[in-house]
């Protein structure tokens, strides 16, 4: 199971017009925002990636607003892990459970997952916080990552794994994250 002390989230390329064109864009943004709010609540670090932001545009404003103390890392490679800053951050954080969200599932999320798995990280893909421009590409990307050893999950499941128990004031605050 995923725990807050060993987890890190990588937000991949939810930016520009592409973020509006992917399948279920509204749901993608909603679930990604829910995950980012949970990261704040549980103090889970987020590594924020942007693919060629000068060409593709910035991260969707609704998501960028949830990362006020964070700075995006611009990349040219499809894999976020191929960027040396990401490798250094992961080494510094010393967290082995990496949760991936973003676009496109079959390209940047997939290549990031493969590189992380080769580097012996435990990769979890939030299926409802990832997307592609075509539904079959999204499904193929998920299938390919699972074949390589990634765990496929949903945001709500992750949040309940982080919460671990019901009851108390912390649980009441937690419930506001999932509504």
TrEMBL record:
Pfam families: Isochorismatase. The keyword Protease does not apply. The keyword Thylakoid does not apply. Coiled coil: none annotated. InterPro entries: Isochorismatase-like_dom (IPR000868), Isochorismatase-like_sf (IPR036380), Isochorismatase_domain (IPR050993). Keywords: Plasmid. SUPFAM superfamilies: Isochorismatase-like hydrolases (SSF52499). This is Isochorismatase family protein. The lineage of its organism: Bacteria, Pseudomonadati, Pseudomonadota, Gammaproteobacteria, Vibrionales.
């Amino acid at each position: 199971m995923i725990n807050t002390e060993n987890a890190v989230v990588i937000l991949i390329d939810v930016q520009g017009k592409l973020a509006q064109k992917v399948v279920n864009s509204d749901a993608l943004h909603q679930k990604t925002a829910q995950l980012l709010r949970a990261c704040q609540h549980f103090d889970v670090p987020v590594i924020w990636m942007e693919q060629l932001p000068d060409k593709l545009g910035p991260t969707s404003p609704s998501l960028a607003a949830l990362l006020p103390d964070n700075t995006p890392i611009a990349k040219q490679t499809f894999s976020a892990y191929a960027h040396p800053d990401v490798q250094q951050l992961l080494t510094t954080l010393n967290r082995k459970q990496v949760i991936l969200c973003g676009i496109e599932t079959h390209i940047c999320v997939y290549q990031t997952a493969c590189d992380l798995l080769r580097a012996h990280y435990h990769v979890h893909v939030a299926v409802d916080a990832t997307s592609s421009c075509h539904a079959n590409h999204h499904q193929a990307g998920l299938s390919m990552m699972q074949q390589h050893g990634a765990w496929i999950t949903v945001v709500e499941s992750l949040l309940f794994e982080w919460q671990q128990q019901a009851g108390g004031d912390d649980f009441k605050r937690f419930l506001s994250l999932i509504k």
